[in-house]
Fold these 2 entries.
Entry 1:
Amino acid sequence: MLDTLRRIVQEVNNAPDIRSALDLMAQRVRDAMGTEVCSIYLRDNDRERYVLMASEGLKREAVGRVSLGLSEGLVGQVGQREEPINLEDAFAHPKFHYLAETGEDPFHAFLGVPVMHHGEVLGVLVVQQRDARRFDQSEEAFLVTISAQLSAVIAHAHASGILFEQLETRKRQASMYDGQPGSSGAAIGIAKLLFPAADLSAVPDREAEDISAEIARLDDALVRVRKEIRDLAERAKASLGVEEQALFDVYLRMLDRHALPAEVVAKIREGHWAQGALRIVVDAHVHNFEMMDDPYLRERAADVRDLGRRVLAQLQSYNRREQEFPDHCILLGEDISAPMLMELPQERIAGIVTTRGSRNSHMAIVARAMSIPTVVGVANLPLKKLDGKELIVDGFRGRVVANATPELKHQFEELIAEEQSLLEGLEKLRDLPAETEDGVSVQLQVNTGLMTDINRSLERGAQGVGLYRSEIPFMIRDRFPSEEEQRVLYREQLQAFAPLPVTMRTLDVGGDKSLSYFPIEEDNPFLGWRGIRVTLDHPEIFIVQVRAMLKAAAGLNNLRIMLPMITNVFEAEEAQHLIHRAWLEVREENVDVEMPPVGVMIEVPATIYQARALAQRVDFLSVGTNDLTQYLLAVDRNNRQVSDLYNSFHPSVLHALLHVVEQAHAEGKPVSVCGEMAGDPASALLLMAMGFDALSMNASNLLRVKAAVRQVNMGFLRRLLNEVLAMDNGEVITAYMDLQLTKVGLGDLIRHRAPAAA
Ligand code: PEP
Ligand code: MG
């Protein structure tokens, strides 16, 4: 059974389009179960009906035409109950709805299972049989399993809007894809897919711009792969037997001009670029081999795949060199890492869309720092199909639109212009204090890491740096920067902001921040070797970094050092001891620098209850709400699947924050927030009411937060805080804050209007 399942799933996944995938599903399931009918009904959300989309056994003409209301018939029942219905005689069931057009008269036995994806019913898979009999448990289990496995294919097509668009009953519409807001703002541009190297399945369809050039590229790549294989064969001579060596000849024969390459050339002549043509040909061969019953021949699929990968790697080494980014491009990718983003031409990037990740991943944080509208976690985006197409990125609501109607595009153009004028309007606040109407002020600082952050921050009147993410410059190199290289970098930051304080966090790698030259392989990296845990194990790295910071601060004395991922007082003490040692060393080298204030980040839940003990030992505390929320709620900050649970307004997070402020102040120590919460006007106001001394955020949000602070008074904020602290539900708190702040005229600052779905 397992083998049959695997085979069906593989075949369906390899189908060229969704309609053939559905037809295949129906055929294969019917054959595997030996039933007379297998049909697939899919839910058309716009029409609120289940449409018969494929059937083996019912009348062909009915496909695409027949549909049932959401609570109509047995199909509607399966959908409503979200569980299988197994009937010996469907006709006898009160919910049975006879569909004359399908010709289902003779079929009595009925088994329907829902097609579920992420808790949503996408459709119903039905098998029927003439004889009145109950399907047995193993048949039911088989249908449930296959439905679960195939649901992703259906979800994908569903989301892309292509499922129903060819039906006569539907008019063509814009395709909307839902994700999460990663960085607010809207953008319109041409999609550019960033796909992982040497992965055939990731290669998008693109048209060949110059057919002979593509053929020449292929020829060139083939020459190199043939040489690679001959070299391999030569090296393997001594260690392999005659039989294994013969394999290399097979490889070379496959690469003969008249074999695989001839098919690829034919595809290029049809208009595909070389990489796409290669993918199509290799996929077809792999598919044919995989379908063979002979296990030896089945294994050959792996050989073809391997050859395909080798040729692709050579083709890509050529294309990488000439990779171009058009103006106003929208980057698309499964996962775009923060360092990858930093290497690209920033001025050309209008928007970013990824299928993985969530709004708290570091890429999204960097995108916000760069003010690039971003949508993350758009699970069902057909990446390859959208490459080169015009897209609208709606970073306010977390949506992506393709094939936008002219009216919708116009609405977005207006929105972009409005947003621009709102930001321009905020610029006049640059030199005004962040002070409530009744004169209470809070320090608004910035989070930095990129070189471009400096100007952006100064332009917006930041009162210093509350978090300099020192790992960012480490991430874009291919080795650890030397002490002198670090000193130069840090000096630039310190000098730009002097005499305002600059809080430099020591290297915070691990989790989702990796250095290519210092790989950390762990099953559970967010609970593993991260931040201070790494640097205390590597004092040679820590001391060099601290020495560079101290030297950079010579004569300026505006440095503060902050320690990430502290779990206990011992780590803080040990780090303080190392910092002191580094300070004595540089003083001995005649560097004129004062011992800087040292603080710790509160981001591990254990430190909430040790805030006072820590405050006794260090000079300041700063709460990293991004990690604190993730650890307190046990919700991976990068996991789209659980992103709805990631809510910094969860009462536990709010009470923890209040406790930390009280403990720090009881010791007379300042406390700030440097997580993303600080940059959101609604939460920033609550943090201010709690008594946080400083809020550190992306420069892009600073003026928005300042505008909000200047439009309220402390009486109102304290009342609001007391009200939400008495609530026990994060969602309710979010909605309540929204309502209250809108009432006092902050709607524009806290919420972003965007055109409703077309
Ligand atoms: C945090 O965790 O809130 C924080 C500021 O650090 P980072 O986002 O870099 O982990
Ligand atoms: Mg953190």
Entry 2:
Amino acid sequence: MVVDTSLEELRKATLARFASATALDELEEARVQALGRKGTLAAISKNFGKLAPEERAHTGKLLNAVKNELEAEYERKKAAFEREALAQRLSREWIDVTLPAPGIRPGSLHPVTQIQEEIEDLFTSLGFAILDGPEVETEEHNFDALNIPPTHPARDMQDTFWLTNGHLLRTHTSPVQVRGMRKFGPPLRMIAPGRTFRNEEVDASHEHTFYQLEGMMIDRDVSVANLIYFMKTLLSGVFHRDVTVRLRPGYFPFVEPGFELDIQCLICGGSGCSVCKQSGWVELLPCGLIHPNVLRLSNIDPDEWSGFAFGLGLTRLAMMRYGIDDIRQLQGGDLRFLNQF
Ligand code: DAH
């Protein structure tokens, strides 16, 4: 029974080493020495063959029992070390889940979009449809159909970005008038906000890309009185306060008579600044009664129908409302600027 004795010794010694191991590598070392391929248990099993056949069954069982016990004890102890290591790591890496989260940074609408949406609401309540048109336009929609023939000097008033295919970047939102008239016919109440482009020298009050809001109403017997009513409604809706306005004759080929509706500069209060070019007034709302040729060119009979149209400078309006004195800030993409709105 020499084998039995050495097995019992191995069992005791190994359990003691497992018990006293203070770290995973110590435990592992004890396991390799006892249970490894070249370990004590393997050495003992080598003598197995020398045993008398009647001893083998008994000793074989014992050998398996010791092996299983030691392996189980090893696994138990190993799991304990791993749990402890995890607990230590977690105690080092804890976070306070009760702290307020930084959260998603709230976005906001661009000031031009805010004003655009307000004006859309206003005109929707007055029975106007909101129309959209393409930014790349045909020459016909942008000029010809608006009573601006090729030789007309008014084409020089708007420095145009021409495309190589003969189309252009729309210089104003007025071509949407043409699209609206041709699609819906009279009577018609529509507005068309959108982006417009001109080959301009950029400075504090000029950008090559800016926003306008076109408006048009066609019905029977529309007069300047109707025009003024709608323009006043528009301005009081936008500014929520009294603004000083002046109406002067203005020339645009698509209206007759045409007007320039100016507002007293809200940046400087009328004393003169870079936005109003020291004049105290800002051109905001050119408008007029639709020229009979414009109606005719879109198949509307001017003897039966009349109307007014206006082209609001949305970008400029945003500047006036928020006291922005440099148009370049609006498109600069600087979040420190945009976060204020
Ligand atoms: N489209 C003109 C421009 O951008 C502005 C304008 C003037 C529009 C008079 C109108 C209008 O509808 O009646 O310079």
